[in-house]
Amino acid sequence: MSNHFSADNLKFPGDDRRLELTDLYVFPAPENPGKTVLIINSNPTVAPPPIPAPTTGPEFYPGAVHRINIDTDRDAHADIAFTFAFSEYANGSQTGTAWYATGAEARQPGPVGRVLAESIPVSFDGTAQPLTVDESGQIRLFAGLRSDPFFADVEGALHGMKWTGHDDFAGNNVDCIALEVPTDLLGPGPLVGVWASISRPGNGALEQMDRGGNPTINPFINPDGEKNRYNSRQPADDVANYLGPWSQLLEQAGYSPEEAKATAMQVLPDVLRYDRTKPISYPNGRKLIDDVFSYRFGWLTHGKVPPTGLKPHSDLTGQFPYLGPPNP
C-alpha cells in the first residue's frame, strides 16, 4: 500500500483514481482495548505526472468491491473478509453496504457473507459520526472523505532520493473505510496477515484493479509492465512470481544473496503481518504515524538512504476514525 499511483507509467488503475487503493492500516483501537482498527483508503486527490488533474469526484467507485482480507493460518488465502460496495453518487450523496464472510465464502471475489450494515451514509462534509453495526453493537464503521494521513517526499524519490523536505501529500484527501472490530473476530490466534483489494465489475465478472498489504511496494520495486499484472494477482502466488526478481534487485543494492532472499521474504507474500502480542509499529501492523516511506527506501538500498525527515500529519485525531477531517 501507500501506492497513490500504482498502475504502469505512474497512472491510476483503469485510469480512474477511485480504483486506486492508497493505504492499509491495522492497529489496536486506542479507545477500546480488545478491539482492532482496520482502515483502507482509496481515491487520492493528489494527481501524479503526467495526469494534469483529477478527473473523477470524491465518491467511492460505484459497484466496485472494496475488501479487507484476513489470513489466519499463514497460507496467504483469505479466511475472513470484510467487503464493501457503494451506490451511484447523486446529488452529493452515496450509500454503501458491508458484509462479513468466513471460510470458503471469504475466498469468493464478490460481496458475500453476512450483511453487517446496509444504506451506510457516506460522509463528504467532514462529519465523522461512526455507525455501530451488527446485532452485538461491537463493530464501528465509517465511510467517507477524510484527510490523507500518508506523508512522503515523492519529488525527492523521483530525483535520485535527494530529499526536498516537502510532503507531497499534505493537504490532500482520500476516501476512507474504517472498521473497529473485536480482535477475536480476526481469528483464534494472535498472528494474522491482512491485505486489501479493489475490484471493478464488468462483463459479468470482477476484475481486480489494485491490491496490497505492505506499504510502498508496487510503485518502487516493480518495473513498468509489471505493476498492472501485480495488481491483478493474489498473495498466494507472490513467492513464486516475485522472490527471484526482487532478490536480484536487492542484491544490486548491496545485499548478499542470502540476505536478499531473506529481505524479500519479509514482504512476500504481500500481506501485512499483525501479531497483537507484540509492539505495533510497521512491519508489525501499521499505525497512522509510521514513517513507512523512509523505512522502504532504507530497505530497498541496504540502509544507504537516510530518513526523509518528514513528520506525521498534525490533523490526526484521537477518536474514531482517527483520520483528520477533509481538507478544503
Q: Give the total of beta strands.
A: 12
Determine Rg (CA atoms, Å): 19 Å
Distance between the termini: 25 Å
**Overall number of domains:** 1
Could you characterize the architecture of this molecule?
The chain has 328 residues and is an alpha+beta fold. The chain has one domain (8-300). Helices cover 14% and strands 28% of the residues. The protein contains six helices and twelve strands. The strands form two sheets. Strands 3, 4, 5, 6, 10, 11 and 12 form a seven-stranded antiparallel sheet that branches. A five-stranded antiparallel sheet has the order 1-2-9-8-7, with no helix packed on it. Helix 4 (238-252) crosses helix 5 (257-264). 49% of the residues are buried.
Give a brief description:
By secondary structure, the protein is of the alpha+beta class. The protein is 14% helix and 28% strand.
Q: Which features does this protein show?
A:
14% helix; alpha+beta; 12 strands; seven-stranded antiparallel beta sheet; globular; 328 residues; five-stranded antiparallel beta sheet
Please outline the helices and strands:
Blueprint: E1 21-28, E2 35-42, E3 65-71, E4 80-86, E5 95-102, E6 114-121, E7 131-133, E8 139-147, H1 154-158, E9 173-182, E10 191-202, E11 205-212, H2 218-221, H3 227-232, H4 238-252, H5 257-264, E12 272-275, H6 292-300
Antiparallel strand pairs: 1-2, 2-9, 3-4, 3-10, 4-5, 5-6, 7-8, 8-9, 10-11, 10-12
